[in-house]
Amino acid sequence: MTILVTGARGHVGHAVLDALVAAGQDVRAASRDATTLDVPDGVAKVSADLEDPSTLDAALDGVRSVFLYVRPQGIEGFVKAAEAAGVRHVVLLSSGATLEPKSAQSRIAIFHRAVEEALIGAPFAETLLNPGSFATNALGWRTDVAEGVVRTPYPDSRIGAIHERDIGDVAAKILTDGSHAGQALQLSGPSPISFREQAEVLADVLGRPLRVEELTPEQAAARMTALGWPPEVPPEVLRAMERTTREPSVVTDVVREVTGTAPRTFRQWAEDHRADFS
Ligand SMILES: NC(=O)c1ccc[n+]([C@@H]2O[C@H](COP(=O)([O-])OP(=O)(O)OC[C@H]3O[C@@H](n4cnc5c(N)ncnc54)[C@H](OP(=O)(O)O)[C@@H]3O)[C@@H](O)[C@H]2O)c1
């Protein structure tokens, strides 16, 4: 039986795909436009838009389990199509935001929870992956790094930055053995690391100095808005950054518990992504 990986072009989706291929699984990779999707030899590709359930039947044909990105618009159609296809297990890339104490007021949590709840109510098994901040967020520094600077609000905010390959390894293990059904897994990197420390590691790995320049919350919000973020989201993200200057974000041992291997460090991430900053 086949495992479908949605978002196979994405950082996490591609890591899931690579881990499943390395484990010798029968994988189908999905994108909204599969014609431009690069996949390893022998992997089938399919075009599927999670916001347009009419595109899902071919993608789900013969599929036993699915790695899913959160797309609230279209989730009911996905559940129906997956049930009709005989899917037994869905592993969702959700967010640690849904586990936060004030998640009822969080726009990010509400967005992710809509899909979590649809899957919890579905007739197949679900596993929710709830990671905190991604190490790949540092890719947002690329333009500044080219100028020898890392510009960030709250440089002493400490987060458990997680490598996308650790999320990929966790997802691949569960998609393969069907374990952790009905569970929500709070995932993180190995230890809290501040943005300032991330910049130091990046400078070391790239072999050139990087100056840290602190943005005001207003400057940071303007940058996020310019990227097309909905206006309610920057204040929420900035509040979380301010909070983690006082109390680091939650770090767990779940990656090791699921995969048997310690989560990768931010240095490992920077080494893996050196070419992205050149
Ligand atoms: N950044 C963080 O710190 C953080 C923390 C916790 C959770 N998360 C979660 O992780 C997600 C980002 O993961 P990532 O870094 O792997 O993202 P990414 O690299 O930006 O990739 C996003 C993927 O989503 C796919 N996609 C978008 N709309 C789609 C649709 N309508 N139908 C099917 N596929 C669609 C895209 O596929 P195509 O373009 O090929 O169609 C792309 O492969 C966030 O959206 C959030 O849910 C992020």
How do the helices and strands follow one another from N- to C-terminus?
EHEEHEHEHEHEEHEEHEHHHH
Radius of gyration: 19 Å
Query: Assembly type of the shown chains?
Result: single chain
Structural class: alpha/beta
The distinct ligands, each listed once, are: NADP nicotinamide-adenine-dinucleotide phosphate
Q: What is the terminal-to-terminal distance?
A: 41 Å
The stretches of 5 or more residues where confidence is low (pLDDT under 50) are none
Number of strands: 11
Q: Compute the average pLDDT.
A: 97
Might you state the CATH topology name of one domain? Rossmann fold
CATH class of one domain: Alpha Beta
How many helical elements? 11
CATH architecture of one domain: 3-Layer(aba) Sandwich
Going by CATH, the homologous superfamily of one domain would be NAD(P)-binding Rossmann-like Domain
Sheet of most strands: 7 strands, parallel
Silhouette = globular
